[in-house]
Every structure is written in structure tokens, then in C-alpha cells.
Fold:
Amino acid sequence: MKSKQKNQLFVATTMFVAIILLQSVVPFLGYVPLGAVVVGASAVILPATAALAGITLGPKSGFVVAFFWAGYSWIKAMLHPGTFGALLFSNPFVAFIPRLLVGVVIGYIAKRCFVDQEKPVWFLFSMGSLAAFINTSMVILLTWVSLTVMPYNGYGIPKENLFFWLIGILAFNFIFEVVINGILVAAIGRILLKRLPKFN
Structure:
């Protein structure tokens, strides 16, 4: 990669990092409230940002963007304890692994598929949906493992049927997140892939 391309990649990665941090700090930029459709439902859209970074810039940039997303979640959970969400993401494995997998896996798949071809809308939609699936499913799995190894009494966490309890708690918004992240990546990804240089 030439020096000019490296500089362009650095600037583009930095912009994605700034966007995902802004989404993390400002709640309504990081999730879409769906109260008009289903009361209490909301869709976290940060997976779409990490997925877009991986698709347009490559898995390394996807990793970097996802790292800042995970890092902010972990630091926030450590500094503001007292909620079930803080309990989950104060565990660095839960905070980092799902998010890093989003950036790397989506970036790697995008790099391998449709090389030197325009990536179709259905592919971009599936990448956004997969990003949401990876994030939610890995959070559930890693939380279940950590609470099984180190049981915690509080927040109404049961000792029996813990896995299904977590699915009930964390997967309520799952279907909305899969659809909305897919739509966002399909819509924004088409534009970015045409405007940004090819780095991968």
C-alpha cells in the first residue's frame, strides 16, 4: 500500500472511530427507539458502524473501530456500576470479544467476497444483520459462561435456567437490531464503497 493510501486509510479509520465514540456517548445516535412499533423496544446500531468500517476499510480498521467501541463500553461500566448492563460489560471478555469479532469477521468476509466487483445490496444487508447477530449472541454466551463460573447474587439473576433467562433479557431487541443494522449497512455501505478508495 502506497504512502498516500496509508494516510487515507488512517484518516478514514479515525473518522469511523470518532463516529462510533459519538454514538456511544450520545444515546440517540447509538440506538433507534422503536416505542411506536413495540413498547420498550430499541435497536442498538453501533454494530452497523463497526461493520461498515470492516467492509469499506478492511478487517484491521474494523478491529480498531470495534476496539474503541468496546473500550468505551468497558470504561463506562467500570465507572458507573449499579445496573445489570454495567455488570455485564465490566467483564472485559464480554465487553471486548463480541465487538472485536464484529469488526474482524465482517471485514474478513467482505474482503474475501466479491473481490473487484460491486458488492450487492443483499450482501451488505446480510453483513449488517450478521454484525448484530455476532454482537448479541456472543454477549449472551460469554455472560452465561462468566456467571456460571462466578455466580452473582443480585439483579434478580437466577441460578437455574440462567442461559434462557439471559436470552429472554438480552435478546428482546434482537430481531429489530438484525433488521435495522442490515438496512443501515445496505444503505450507507453502497454510498461509502463508491466514494471511498479501495483499501482491501
